[in-house]
């Protein structure tokens, strides 16, 4: 045991305690990454299932005051009515697939029963001063049937976008059916729809792309990485101990001949 006495030194006690603390920390980080992997995989499965589900009339899934659920989000819906461009607004600080900043075009769609569906017709660039209402290509006139993806109301808590007050006329920060119902003085269906058909004439507004899949395998890789790190800590500690023993023994071996050499007569 004499050869391990150095483990009681201040330096080695500190190093050992640090290694002991690292192991459970890394294990917990691995479990956190596992939880993130499971969450993202579940969301990806829900999105895929919703996108491939058969389209249904929008009023089968939502109604005034309804909060769109996780299983209803991204479902393909159809609606028949008329676009009300007089009440059209734009949503600030939105990007397209290339990362360019512009607006989303939100147009009330009056259904045949008089209720209103909020339709995000797509993205347009922020040409000119952002305080001015941009020029927007008109939607189809008269009675129209549209198709799109159902989305939940946007909130600051869910999106991280601050709902700034005092914006220029006909500009908003968040798409929220409750707020739009107050502005329009109408019965507005909960949530909104990202229009996918019919396509805009001339490609403007630019259609919003399908939701991408979250990178769940990356979290799985991080989970394995943290657990491998946890397993490597005691191995690394033992390697350092063995190296310290070897270095001490080599130093002692070099000193022995000098100490054993007889004194000169």
**Element-by-element helix/strand order:** HEEEEEEHEHEH
What structural category do the secondary elements indicate?
A: alpha/beta
Query: Roughly how much helix do the residues carry, as a percent range?
Result: 25-40%
CA(first)-CA(last) distance: 39 Å
Number of helices: 4
Membrane topology: Multi-pass membrane protein
InterPro entries: Surf1/Shy1 (IPR002994), Surf1/Surf4 (IPR045214)
Family: Belongs to the SURF1 family.
GO cellular component, one term: plasma membrane
Walk me through what this model shows.
The chain is of the alpha/beta class. It folds into two domains: 21-52 and 215-247; 54-203. It contains four helices and eight strands, in the order αββββββαβαβα. A five-stranded mixed β-barrel has the order 2-4-5-8-6. The radius of gyration is 32 Å and the shape is elongated. The model has no long low-confidence stretch (mean pLDDT 90).
Identify the notable features of this structure and list them briefly.
single chain, 2 domains, 5-stranded mixed β-barrel, 4 helices, elongated, Surf1/Surf4, membrane, transmembrane, transmembrane helix, Surf1/Shy1
Task: Provide a short characterization of the protein structure.
The chain has 265 residues and is an alpha/beta fold.
SSE map:
Layout: H1 10-52, E1 56-57, E2 76-83, E3 89-95, E4 101-111, E5 116-125, E6 144-151, H2 156-159, E7 171-172, H3 177-184, E8 192-197, H4 216-260
Parallel strand pairs: 1-2, 3-7, 5-8
Antiparallel strand pairs: 2-4, 2-6, 3-4, 4-5, 6-8
Helix pairs in contact: 1-4
